[in-house]
Design brief:
about 375 residues
Length: about 375
Amino acid sequence: ILLALGQGLTGSIISLMTLCSTLVGVSMTPVPLLTTLPITATVCGAALMIYTVSSLMTKYGRRNAFIIGTLLGLAGALLAALAIVLHSFSLFVFSTFILGMSCAFNQYYRFAAAEIFTDNQQKNRAISWVISGGILGGFLGPFAASQSSQLWAPYPFFGSFIAAAFICVITSLLLLGLKLPPMPIVTASTQRSEPLAAILKSRAFVLGTASCSVGFVVMTLLMNSVPLAMHQHHFSVSHSATVLQWHFVAMYAPALLLVLLAKRLTPIQVVVIGMVCNVVGVAVALSGLTFWHFLFALMLFGVGWAFMFNGGTFMLNAFTHSVHKSRLQGINSLVIYVPNALASLSAGSLMALTSGWPLVNMVGIGMLLLLVLGLIILGRR
């Protein structure tokens, strides 16, 4: 329960920033091309921190590392609020970078859940339960952002980041009660008996990591583009908030379904379902520009991410009790976040073009086709 709450509350910070950061960027940026720089700084902060998180967990334990993450989020949220008051774009970008570092810890709740069990089906169910905690984040983040955005009228979105700081404090207090199995100690003899290089080349690790990474890249590219696309087509902040709320719910709600389906579907089948949902989402997005087109497309992208990310994580269960698990989890998360940062940065540049929204969707299709090609090649081998 605490892991699911941690997943949800830290996820609410991510969804809050997805709505606010780009819109704050629109009002502050000196160059339109840099509109999505704040949210890109978030992803870059996560990418640079993601591998270090696994080292922190080995050294201090998962609970203490998760609490360190919430304190980083608190510092970043308060800095963001200060940047809005000072109208400093550079300080705001720095603050979202710090918030991104705190978001990196969100990737490890699923791994912590899997370690509690030894049976693979129980691992899959535990992962699904904890990831489904993101439903809370899907509603709470955009709701807190939109409801508190005018808390201090002269400074739009100042209140949103104060709300984010409050969420970080609540999360750290809840995590104080978390009890988890100790992290394994890696010795020279265990390293020799289980070579890391062999695991990195294994089919399960390559496919699992590729599925998580492509699912995240497609979702990030399209999710970060939506507030801009809706802003360009004169939709209100509340309309954007509603679309993002349901997108985040669609990201995490399928995990509850996977709790039941984990016994019936193979990880590859789960990933393929996710890819199909993404393709249908692109078809919906390209068929119109009404509120409902944006809503249903983003929901399909959310479901697509859920199946691809859960399916990829299920494949990684083979290494949950490996002596190298901390390094493997760090490498997996790093491979997810570096392309993610590039996707986030690309969103602003692509959306600055006349055909921005259709182009973003076609790039998403291209990424999915690359993954299909990879699956076919690895399947033949």
